[in-house]
Each structure stands twice: as C-alpha cells, then as structure tokens.
Design brief:
Radius of gyration: 17 Å
Structural class: mainly alpha
Number of helices: 9
CATH topology of the largest domain: Glutathione S-transferase Yfyf (Class Pi), Chain A, domain 2
Shape: globular
CATH architecture of the largest domain: Up-down Bundle
Order of helices and strands: HHEEHHHHHHH
Strand order of the largest sheet: 1-2
Length: 175
Amino acid sequence: MRARLALRLAKIEVQIQEIDLHNRPPELYAASSKGTVPVLVLNDGTVIEESIEIVRWALGGSEKDYALIKRCDGEFKQHLDRYKYSTRYENVDPQFHRQQGSLFIDHLNDELGKADYLAGNEFGIPDLCIAPFIRQFRAADVEWLDEQPWPALHNWLQRYLESNDFKAIMVKAIP
C-alpha cells in the first residue's frame, strides 16, 4: 500500500499487476528471486524490491523522515505480526504483543497531538509509510483500538482512510 501511495503522490504512472501470493507467477520470480511484493521494475531493468525503497526512489526525503519509519518497520511490525497473525508463530501471546505495539501507538498519538500529521502540517513520508501498519493493527480488533484514548491518532487514521488517495490505491487492478 505504501509503495502504491508513494507512486501515486509522486505522479509516477506504473502498470500494477495483482499477485495471488498462494500462486505466484513465474514473472515475479524472474523480476525478483525473493518472490515477495511489492516489486517495481523500471524501464531500464532496475528492480526495486522493498516498499520503503520504492518510497525513497519515488519521493526522496530526509533521514529524519525515515527515523520513525525505521522504528515502525522494526519493533512495531514485529509486534503487529505476532498480534494480528499469532497462529503463525509458536508460543506467542497476542495480548502481550498488542500491549507492546500500543507503546508505539502511544508515541504516535503524542506526536500527532503536536501537529496534524507525523510529517508536520501536511501528509508526508512518515504518514504514508506508517498509516498502513496502524490500519492493520486496528483491523486485528477494531472495537478495541477505537476505544483507546488516542484521539489524535484516531483523527489522523480516519483522515487517511477517508482520503481520495487511499481510496484510489485500494482499487484492485484488473488482471
């Protein structure tokens, strides 16, 4: 989602190909031996295999933009995966990982209490990279998250979910 959103915001036209992750086509492995998505193949044959690298390529940004994203992609993402997909792991307590992930969300709520967006007064790179993961965290238990005392985060997430850009990237590409 964040790669698609970065490309949209940068006004870079791409051909999107939906991938069934249970039946990955040979073309995916031809582009990237990892066989993961997203994969961006440039006209010159350059392959960019990670969403964060696609964001960097499309939008640039400063190291300050990526500091919070790094924390999200590391510590928070680990807790998110073990909370939302606990059955994929052995001896995992999803409630523990929800609580640990909540510490990051507490921090985001504090930051969003200072400005409308993580990037400041306008939606920016930290917002587009972190919002999809907060959306996933919320999806694990919508009622629980919506009841938490995070007013700034709730407003931020709602603006993201209601944005025309988010709605546009959520449209499935026709195969």
